[in-house]
Amino acid sequence: MAAPPVVDLPFVDERLAQDLADGLAEVEKLLRSSVESRDSFVTEASRHLIEAGGKRFRAMLVLLAAQFGSSGASGVVPGAVVIELTHLATLYHDDVMDEAPVRRGSPSANARWDNTVAILTGDYLFAQASEILADLGPEVIRIQAQTFSRLVRGQIRETIGPREGEDPIAHYIEVLADKTGSLIATSGRFGGLLSGAAPEVVDRLTRACEAIGIGWQLGDDLLDVASESAESGKTPGTDLREGVHTLPMLYVLASESPEDARLRELLAGPVAEEDVEEALRLLRAHPAMERARAELVSWIDRARKDLSGLPDIPARAAYLALCDYVIERSG
Fold this sequence. Notes:
This protein has helices at residues 14-34, 40-51, 57-65, 76-98, 109-112, 115-133, 138-160, 168-194, 199-226, 238-242, 247-254, 261-267, 276-284, 287-307, 314-329; strands at 102-103, 106-107. It has 331 residues and is mainly alpha-helical. Pfam families: polyprenyl_synt.
């Protein structure tokens, strides 16, 4: 079995870092056993992305949030596994929709087998998550159902795009909140709830984690333009090549300045390979980048506001350090 993920965020307390590392080892063990099947192929397909690695970021947030209650409570690790299974299931489905050939440095499931296998494997992971949920109580089941609804709604809204008359920028932020923020919010909520933390603490963790999730994705948008290497896990300019309009691009497209005419022309659809460098150069120099970064900072400030009301323990300092990191990684 592969080693559990390493806690690599800037934690300020060694004991907390060790607690999280120990918890992630338990998560990894249960995660792998939860997808075992009598059918060896189902097990192989289900473990495909688990074996490919990943930071288990959402599972780690569950464990970190549990520090505000009884971190050793019996439901915490299963709750973290539910979150991770849900996240992995969405990756199987995303790769089919995006026709992605690679995931986490390995062939995607749809590339290794086919789209049908990838879709069904994602469904299987959702089912396994539901089985674990059944032992965690009706409130947790309801929260998971609401989260799943938001995940699907976000994907649908992203696919169809903004409706006529709808602000594309507001639409984009709402999509990020549903597609990315919702599951990260539920990570914090599960950790607080399953550890028995006070209701006000659970609410603060939920809001802060959603804001962190939105900020994280906005940081990825900026890195795809600003980075000179694959810092965000994909080749810089990938969104341009795929015609994906992220926040900086939406700001440019909303501009009516004659100076932006060439960049608007390039961003009107997928950018041809021979034009990618020009588009990157123009976008990097455009005020839209600073404007998008300011939006990221505003979300992280929201997270900090909620976190500041939490009990002053090492986990709060860790969350605040994470907020700093989200901003720093964006450049």
